[in-house]
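Newbie here. two chains, one complex. Structure please?
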Amino acid sequence: MLTELTIAQARAGLEAKQFNAQELTEAHLFGIGALNPRLNAFLTVTAEQARNQAKAADAAIARGEMKALTGIPLAIKDLFCTQGVRTTAASHILGPFVPPYESTVTANLLADGAVFVGKTNLDEFAMGSSNMTSAFGPVENPWKRRQDESAVLVPGGSSGGSAAAVAARLAMGATGTDTGGSIRQPASFCGLVGVKPSYGRCSRWGVVAFASSLDHPGPFARTVQDSAILLGSMASHDPKDSTSADRPVPDYEAACKRGVKGLRIGVPKEYRVDGMPAEIEALWQQGINWLRAAGAEIVDVSLPHTKYGLATYYIVAPAEASSNLARYDGVRFGLRKDGAELSDMYGNTRAAGFGAEVRRRILIGTYVLSAGYYDAYYLRAQKVRALILRDFTDAFANVDALITPTTPSAAFAQGEKMDDPIQMYLNDLFTVGANLAGVPAISVPAGLDSNGLPLGLQIMGKPFDEETAFAVSAEIERAAGFSALPQLRAGV
Amino acid sequence: MALDPTTIRRIATLARIRVEDDRLETLSQELNGILGWIEQLNEVNVDGVEPLTGGAQMAMKMRDDAVNDGGYPDKILANAPDRNGAFFAVPKVVE
């Protein structure tokens, strides 16, 4: 089955001419045709474009010009602008928007020979942890509860479509964005590796903005090595993003082989929260034991402000969102709903175009930035954010990486946690710290819960030291030997 | 700091989002729930702490103040809901 190959295996197979890029692409398009009507992982399938790219890849291979991703079918979160291909952010407000330009990250992937099979579903404007806020309907997680195969589970969010697509073998890898956990939480829910690199490692240019100081593009893949190959292509210095880091991109693939012998791995005690399911706690301990057995030294550390991460996030992210989303005014692109006067047109357009969660966050953001409340909310949150960064800086003075669970639970069912926004927000309890501090973090599948659903462990690294995070993640992957498969996948 | 319907009306106007009167009560409950939960930040001692604006652990770069892009109005206007020649068109603002 071509769809079961890893990116590394497919690259070797293409190079050895065991199959060609067009066959590889067709196998994935066939899977999409069979499963996407049910999963709703893709909002747009770009079959013709993919076939042309695969043909070009075969020509390049024939000329002996293989690059890092030549002929590899990838899925792109529909938050990345793709030239000539409709981009929605899973919102009605973008209407029929077709970008006249290509985001830097997707341009980097294309320059490395990748094939794009389509644009994936997400929570509207990446605001959510379940993919339930998409204006184009929810995504079904290809994994099923062993005891109840009829329950439809969420893939997590916001990058739920990307995670479902890679888990169901509809693409070999995917791009995502992570503002509070939106790559790592769906990766954990779908049994994938998800990487949120350091802030500044991947350009945000051409990515629809949610919260600019927290948004991080990154990859999904089925192995740590594959995710390293993807990040190596996506990362670059980009003068068009003023926060893009002007530093060389290391060889992440090589870093996966380093091992963990002699590394100091921190275990933050504040992540041991009340009410954490015993199986998640047990898996965390198992991960610690694996690393110790592989020669790492385990060190207890403290990140004292961990419990304030989510509240800080829910001031900073809506504040930045209320500012970023001001551009959707019905004038230059996207939806317009007419009104008698200009201000009516604005109000009507934004009421009709934004979904409930997006409107809620814009209103919260507008409030915390408004005169009289700025100091009490926004400025205070920025100060707590400084303390959270200080926690990480202090911890990393003593350790090389941190290990924690990725999420407080396995995938839940569609409709659960919908009554109270805060219940949904708690999904990001363990992931949001890395966004506030800008440090790299990887979720790696490490085991199954009692329902047979995947659970991930999170490895966090020092700023711009993705290499150590990859080395530790690869060790977890080796030790865990995670081989379980989702029930819904191409070719089954 | 509870949000009453009058305050919701004011921030909705600032945010340019039309909100129907019959939605104000529900919105007020939802937003107060979130703000009440956020109030936990008041426990943190932030005396003398400098606010952190972003996750970038580096100095911002400067660039030359020079035009390096542009000159394609048709591309810029291609997605406009309404246009008039080389301009975006909006409802009449000035009588």
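Moderator note: Chain A has one domain: 2-263+398-480. Residues 375-396 of chain A form the longest helix (22 residues). Thread marked as resolved.
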